[in-house]
Every structure is written in C-alpha cells, then in structure tokens.
Design goal:
The chain is an alpha+beta fold. The protein is built from ten helices and six strands.
Amino acid sequence: MRFRLLRPLDRYVLAEFLKIMTATALGFPILVIVIDVTESLNKYLARHIPPMDIAKAYVFSVPETMFQVLPAAVLFATVFSIGGFTRHSEISAAKASGISFYRFIAPIAVGAAIAMLLDLFVGAAMPVANARRDVLLHEKQSGDAVMRSNFTFATATGRVYKVSSADASTGSLDRIEIDRKGTGWPDFPTYVIFARSGKYSPRKGWMLKTGVIHVLTGDSSNFTISFDSLRDRHLIEPPKNLLANQKAPEEMGYADLGNFIASMERSGTDVNQLRVERMLKIAIPATCMIIMLFGAPLATSNQRGGAAYGVGVSLGTTVIFLMLVQLTQAVGGKGLVNPELAAWLPGILFLGVGGTLLARVRT
C-alpha cells in the first residue's frame, strides 16, 4: 500500500487555504500602495523624481508591507477557509468519517508553516529593498559620505573613538579621542588618548599625530605620555568603512543588526529598542503558526455569521495583535521587560489563548 503525504482531502483543504492567503498577502500591500500614492505622490513629484523611479520604489516597498501582513493573511485564510468548511458541513462529514478536527486542519498547519518560511525569506530581503526604495525616493543619498563630523565609533576590542571631523577622500581625521576601559592596573589599565590628527595608509594603517596618552592607574599615580606620532594597530577599519553612512535598523538583517547592537553597547548606548526590533524579525514570522492555532477554533462558530463574522474576527484580532506589538516594543525599549522576551509576548499570549480554545473544540 503506497503512502501518500497529502490525501485528496488534504490537498483540497490546503488549496482553499493557500488561495485565500495568497489573495490577502498580495491584496494588503496593493491597498497600502494605493493609499500612500494618494498621500505622497505630489511630494515625490515635487522632488523631480521620474515616475518610473516612483513605481520601482513602490515595488521595493512590497517586502516590508508583506512581512508585516503575512500573519494577518494566515489568520484571514484560516478563519475564512474553516468557516466555509463549517457552513457547508464539510467538517461534520469529515468527523462522521472518523477524521478528527485536529487531523482535518493539519494541511492548514502546513500552509501556516509555508507562510512562516516565506515571511523569514521576505524579512531577509527587506533590508536591501528598503535601502533601494529610500534611494529612489531621495529619502537617502546613495553611496558613502566623503565628509563626516562629530561622530563616535566603537571597535570590536572595546575602544571608543570620538572624532571631530573626517575626510574619506584623503583618509584623514581631526581631533580624535580614544577611550579604552581597562580591568585594573597594571595588567590592563584604563587610558584615554588625545590626538590632533590621524592619517590612513593602506600599508601601515592609521597613524595618529601630536597627542598625549593619559594612563589611569586608579590612584594618585596617574601619568601622561606625549607623542609626535603613534601607530594605532587596533583600528583596522579603512576610511570607507569608518565614514560610511550608517544604515537604519530597518535596512539591516538579523546578523547585521546584531553586530550593530554589539557596537552600540560597547559605546555605552541604550540598545533595548534595537534588541526588540531584532527579535521581531523572528517573532513575527513565527506568529504565522501561532495565529493559525488561534483562528482555527474561532472559525468553527462561523455558521451563522458568514463573511461578516470572518472579517470582524480577522480584523479585530489583527488590530489587537498590532497594538500588543507596539505596546511590547515600548515596554521592551524602556527596559521594563527583557527586550527579547518583549518581542515574543504577543505570540505567547495568543499561543496560550489559542491552545485553550483549540483544546475545547469538539473533535
């Protein structure tokens, strides 16, 4: 007897689910684009942006919108497909044939898993698409900055550089302060370096000119050393990387954002909000599976309400979920809750409620 992964009933249920999910996942971004065009088209035309570039920018904006709406698309597809099966007594017929409700919705769980993987893929493509969109709409200049003033840069070794001005074209820095926090004298002392200027050589790296080193021993024996030139072997970044325009968090992937957070932590910056946003890159796709467990039992009571009931449940749940995401971002950003945990709180809440409702469904 040959084993089939998907039986005819499974293929039928999965096909109905995927049709609704695809229509919703594509329909929401199109709706968002239409609304944004009516609000922002005059602004973009005033910047003398070619219409073709505006059209391309909206294409590049689709991944960000789709990343946010895929969990909602899964919810809509779950509620409307199971609601339809319930109204047409297909679930009752399946139960009469010995197929439990849990087995009946197994293909929908497969569809939700597909949506989760798709959302992870879209999330990975989103940073590149956002960066390209901003360039096309003149929200951000393409390429790297040649000049930069008054910025802070933290290296992987824990040294923090405060630079008054820099020129990438000549590879030079002006008025540099370097802070290195140590663990104690004399093995690994804390010191501060002040230099009037710095120059980059591809062969020798960064050379600091005319400055002093203040070594802090922790008592009254602190001392200072003057220098005419000092090679900085710890700063290995070339001018192009050091002076490049900093990407916004939405233009970074999970790994890049993690590196950025580590860099900001070394310079003493509060990174709780960034930690929440980083974890949401995984938590939101995972919600595709969680929201399916929540929507499936609700849809079984859809016999009388019809489409109006399905729309109300789906929109109401989506609004509540988005509000919870905003709330947990604020709570995690303020450090009231662990930032990574805050990103998962809406999913945990919906998983608990959905699991309870699913356990009460008559199988």
